[in-house]
Write the structure tokens for this entry.
Amino acid sequence: MPLVPLKLQAGFYRNGTDFDASNRWRDGSLVRWRDGSLRPIGGWQEKKAGFSTNPIRGAHAWEANNNTAYFAGGSHNELKVMTGAGVVTDITISGLATGREDAALNLGYGGGFYGTGYFGTTRPSTGTYSEATTWSLDNYGEFLVACHYDDGRLLEWQLNPSSNAAVISNAPTSNLGLIVTEERFLFALGAGGNPRKVQWCDKENNTQWTPAATNEAGDILLQTSGQIMQAVKTRGQTLIITDLDAHSAKYLGPPYVYGFDRVGTACGAVSRMSAIDTDMGVFWMGQRGFYRFDGNSVSEIKCEVHDYVFDDLNTNQQSKIWAFNNSEFSEIWWFYPSGGSTEIDRYVAYDLLENHWLIGNLSRTSGTPRGVFRQPYLVGHNSDSDVYSHETGLNYDSGSVFCETGPISIGAGDQIAKVTEVIPDELTQGDVDLKFKTRFYPNDTETTHGPFNPSNPTSVRFSGRQVRMRVEGDELAAWRVGTMRLEVKAGGRR
């Protein structure tokens, strides 16, 4: 009897019909591939319980001059910092504008910005749209700088645990966000209430904002129909992304200080936290796709799970979407709310080295990559917004770790195949369970067989023209799955 190898390409494919994912992995969670072998992602450990009483929408990690590591995170009504030793301090400025934990529905004409919706989509006749409140955070030297979307003031915290964050003197107000450039200018985004204005302070002086012949302060109004969403510092320049296009800011020196060029059109960001810088450029999530800026121009990335993500996305809560650079594994993760959820409950990730896509279920509202801390710090969505150290250990809090293929044809031509044995290729044999789901026709009722705990070989009994294989990993097990082989014999016609 012949052996049929289930040698499948790494990564998930979830576009088009169910049969379009033939001979590919179609569904899964909390798994990744390395050099062709399937394995679980790293687990997580609670680092700090009760960091905040509300979901964190914006986080940043940095080191002070005395090597103290800090983690900052902000919710709709507070800003907190935590030292590497786990000491949490509330540094919320007095009189901070109260924002929103959730976005309000776009209920009427004029309720949002031009270009952020889809033509032909019916809207109710009354109401307005308000984003979920997010924070823009960075460090200016060893000090934390911050901007709350609804408050709009530029704030600074100078590491004194006895003092709260304070307004930066002379800075513009009613801003949408901020960033500190590589040249140590502080950019105010959407400065002074103008959604297209970028204003910057004098170099190395964030209290000098009035341009003069003796300083390098300045401003510019971007020529765009959209509003500024986010800025990302990348190699040799700062990328400014609106909800419609993208612009590059390069330092020129006096008298012009900065030069601005539009580097992409029809590539707007889906949220204010959806872009991230990597060694391979800036990547971000848009309204209906994913984009990359390579240092010169913007291009759309081919996405093999496009339909899965964008056809089941809660667009009313898209302002919560955020990006995370999982640099240890050369992956970019985007966390987003699915269509049936008002809170983040899923992720989609892109493997930069092996050029494939990952999907899964996980609720994390914000976080920071490894670097300042040894592992990534991500914040969970629970009553206390606990901070977790990720990619460590194999604990998943009872989360489902699995991977399932699309339909695989096992019968020759129109013949039915009978499978009698599975010859597993699994590193720690016995740490995964296998299920097989068979059909005789593409739209036929599916029959599940198993679970089977792999031995060498594993005796099974099922038949059909096509089969799915589901791999379910045991928690606390460092399993690896390669090419499974099925022992198949022809079984005639049904």
Summary: Residues 306-310 form the longest helix (5 residues). The mean pLDDT is 93.
